[in-house]
Hints:
Strand order of the largest sheet: 7-11-10-9-6-8
Shape: globular
CATH topology of the largest domain: Archaeosine Trna-guanine Transglycosylase, Chain: A, domain 4
Strand content: 35-45%
Organism: Haloarcula salina
Protein name: RNA-binding protein
Pfam family, one: PUA
GO molecular function, one term: RNA binding
CATH architecture of the largest domain: Roll
InterPro entries: CHP03684, MCT-1/Tma20, PUA, PUA-like_sf, PUA_sf, Uncharacterised_CHP00451
Amino acid sequence: MEVKSRHHLRSDEVDAITAALSDNLGVDLDADSFEKVAFDDSDWNVVLVDGDPLVLYLDDEPFLTVQGANQHPPRKHVVTVDAGAVSFVSDGADIMRPGITEADDDIGAGDLVVINEESHGKFLAVGRAKTDGDDMVGDSGKVVESLHHVGDDLFEFSV
């Protein structure tokens, strides 16, 4: 991914990002610099936080990247998967009910969520819930659409 442009965000834009992350994920993101990055060859809308790609916009909503979730672990909107699901999630597959061991009850259908693996507590992906959190654990069906995962272009991007 080639950077087309970078510019520092205004304080009101930073306030909107930090408020959204606090409200939606329970994350307090305290940093010295926030820069929005535009790419030549990608549609990702990314914010560098102190130089690291920690925030992305999905449908105009700021959310953590996988790197952001691992650096600032969310306390809300977390879906946990078992070890058997890790390789599939890491390859970008949608998340299926049988692989889910736990999901926050505050998740609603359409919400952005982070995918965590239960063994080491690492975050593997960001996705959009297709059902409420209390309906995610079960025997069959896709319940989270994967939008960003370890190993994709955004995960591999560094400045």
